[in-house]
Amino acid sequence: MNSPILRKSRNLLSSSTRRRIASSLSSFSTSASGTQIIPNGELGDRCDVNMISSSFPPIRDGPYQPLPEFVMSNWKGCGGHLGDEIAIIDGTTGMERSFNDFYNTTRGLAGSLKYDFDVSENSTVCLFAPNHVDYLPVTLAVGLCGAKMTPVNPSYSREELLVILDGSRSSVLIAHINTLDTALEAAKESRYVKHVIAMTENGEVLPEGVVSLESIIDHDKAFDKTIRDQHPNTDRHPYLLPYSSGTTGLPKGVSLTHSNVVANLLQLEVVEGLDFKLGESLISPLPFFHIYGMTCSSLYCGYRGHSIVTMSGRFDLEDFLKLVEEHKPQRAHLVPPILVGLAKHPIVDNYNLSSLSCIVSAAAPLGLDTENVVKKRLGCEVKQGWGMSESSPIGTVNPDFKIKSGSVGPLVSSTYGKIIDDKTGKSLGPNEDGEFCVKGPQVMLGYLDNPDKTAECLSKSGWLRTGDLAYYDEDGYVFIKDRTKELIKVRGFQIAPAELEELLLTNDLVNDAAVIQIPDEFHGELPRAYIVLKEATTDDNEEATKASIYEWVKGKVAPYKRLDGGIIFTDVIPKSASGKILRRLLRDQVREEFAKLEFD
After folding, report:
1. With 0-12 CB in 10 A as exposed, 13-18 as middle and 19+ as buried, what is 191?
2. How many C-beta neighbours within 10 Å does residue 210 have?
3. In the predicted model, what is the mean pLDDT of residues 151-163?
4. Which strand ranges, in their side-by-side order, compose the sheet holding 281-283?
5. Which of 286, 305, 289 is nearest to 297 (CA)?
6. Count of helices and strands (H, E) across the chain
7. Over the stretch 204-241, which tens digit does the pLDDT of each residue have?
8. Domain ranges in the chain?
9. How far apart are alpha carbons 400 and 348 in whole angstroms?
10. 584 CB neighbour count, 10 Å cutoff
């Protein structure tokens, strides 16, 4: 192959690895740039030209072993080498776990869940917690039982949690001590929750009927192999069930199989394994309930044996800087708002961050200026990747040896991509803007119990419409320009406009509502509501009415969903003849508003 990317990969791979992949490489043909252009065929759906493939070596074909066995394969209890080495440190509480601790907790908890809490391949367990040091063992224990695990944002309100509990049909709810009150309120109203388990930190006294996680991690029937029925179903049975708004609409359960996630870890290994060396550590304040933190930080470090430093409390820039100085990690997984702080905040100069060799940014677009300022200020590489819950999540990422500023990188191994014209569905050539689509072994089964929404974004032949406006260059590097989808992203967290609109319509003052995003330098975006009131207000009480609605919403949603982009009263919400809200017209107004502010 003539790809400069692959040539570099070959030089860095071991000789045994090079021999193993040599035969599969012979079946690939690429252009001189390293981008494979596929002229025709089934892969195209309605497209017949201009599909691109990864220039990285392909991963082996699936289906793969169950995810828990894959992640634990290097742990001493499973015959590997990782034992007393530190697996995780919570910089907020100071708690830590070794890989031996991980192993013992995982197998013991699996026994308890299966034999005492009736968790089976037909069950779902909901994990409602911040980045506790036992987050990974809980995730793996649920998988050993063959069940589904749905991770939930710990800042969710009772109403938000209840939607996921009943949508996922969770029979077991595992909550952190700090989220327990909300968990119990939601569990009381849930149609499915039978058991509540609490993750404690200091032996806190629990309400009657609630069991502590610590008390059930020792079990006489502990096991470390996934139940037999799961082994032939790793590519068909959902395991991880994060909730995502997808390209539009309300949050939906994303059905990710064992094979989806194992494939994504193998794809990540091809890119990161070359430069993220054994013995090096990672700092990741990313929440593990988010698929970026779950797969790329927690599961990947558990598999590779990297020590991970995380934060279970609310993110604070100075606390983060202290942890970097103290623990000296070589890599960091961050989101753009944190990089804005690293670029601009004067406190950064007070700390020694020289251990960092590479920062990976994902979950939202990173501005080119911010990327370059952080590189220069910290003296380390900054690279971007792209993904979404529906792709487990990684679809593209820059390799350390060829980072293109402003790009989210080339496609990962065994992944195809195309840019399509939204009107014709035809795939476009290099440097032409259109909707980014991907296909690969990491792409989800679909949305749980929602075939209509699945069909809107996932074709019969496996192409996932991402809702991102993008283009690729002659080297196959992808550049994300904007979103065609309606999703709002605040600090990397997703908000479905329809979710806030539905909530607003239950307010006694609101007759109609539309929610869009406005740009914000630190948060990326903020939600703004346009509201038609049931009764007119005067200038004297308009601000009081806005404050009343804001506080009402604040009491019912997670903090990042608050209407911090403002509330605008209007006489009418623009809609199509079929009644669909025309949010693009409101976004056009916002662009004009901000352009005028910049001009003034």
Report:
1. exposed
2. 19
3. 96
4. 96-98, 86-90, 307-310, 281-283, 331-334, 358-361, 381-387, 394-397
5. 286
6. 17, 27
7. 999 999 999 999 999 999 999 999 988 999 999 999 99
8. 67-470, 488-599
9. 24
10. 12
pLDDT at 483: 75
User: E strand or H helix at 240, and its extent?
Assistant: strand 238-240
Which residue in the block uniquely carries the two structure tokens 């060396």? 277
Helix (H, G, I), strand (E, B) or coil at 327: helix
Rounded distance, CA 273 to CA 295, Å?
A: 15
8 Å CB contact between 516 and 586? yes
How many other CB atoms are there within 10 angstroms of residue 470's CB atom?
23
Strands 416-420 and 52-53: antiparallel
| Token pair for 441 | 């072994």
pLDDT in tens, 92-140: 999 999 999 999 999 999 999 999 999 999 999 999 999 999 999 999 9
CATH fold for domain 67-470: Rossmann fold (3.40.50)
Annotate 485-525 with DSSP letters as a single string: S--EEETTEEE-HHHHHHHHTTSTTEEEEEEEEEEETTTEE
Instruction: For residues 377 and 398, give the distance between their C-alpha atoms in angstroms, rounded to a whole number.
Output: 20
DSSP state of 116: H
In whole angstroms, give the CA distance from residue 536 to residue 248. 31
E strands, 415-463, in order: 416-420, 434-439, 446-447
Give me Rg for the CA atoms of the chain.
24
DSSP 241: -
C-alpha to C-alpha distance for 49 and 35, rounded to whole angstroms: 13
Mind listing the pLDDT tens digit for each residue in 573-593?
998 665 678 888 898 889 888
Contact (CB, 8 A) for 58 and 21:
yes
Check for a shared fold between 67-470 and 488-599: no
Contact, 86 vs 279, CB < 8 A? no
Sign of CA dihedral 46, 52, 56, 57: positive
Q: What are phi and psi of 84, to 5 degrees?
A: -80, -5
- Cα separation of 313 and 93, whole Å? 8
- Tokens standing for residue 531: 């509201």
Separation CA 364–CA 210 (nearest Å): 38
Phi, then psi, of 517 in degrees rounded to 5: -100, 150
How far apart CA 430 and CA 407 sit, in angstroms, is 14
What is the rounded average pLDDT of the residues 551-573?
95
- What would the two tokens of residue 335 be? 């989101």
Tokens describing residue 135: 């987050």
Q: What is the DSSP letter of 423?
A: T
Pairing outcome for strands 358-361 and 464-472: unpaired
Q: Domain 488-599 falls in which CATH fold? A: GMP Synthetase; Chain A, domain 3 (3.30.300)
pLDDT tens digits along 30-67:
332 344 444 433 334 555 579 999 999 999 999 999 99
Residue with token string 């040599």: 22
> Can you name the residues that pair with 488 across neighbouring β-strands?
495
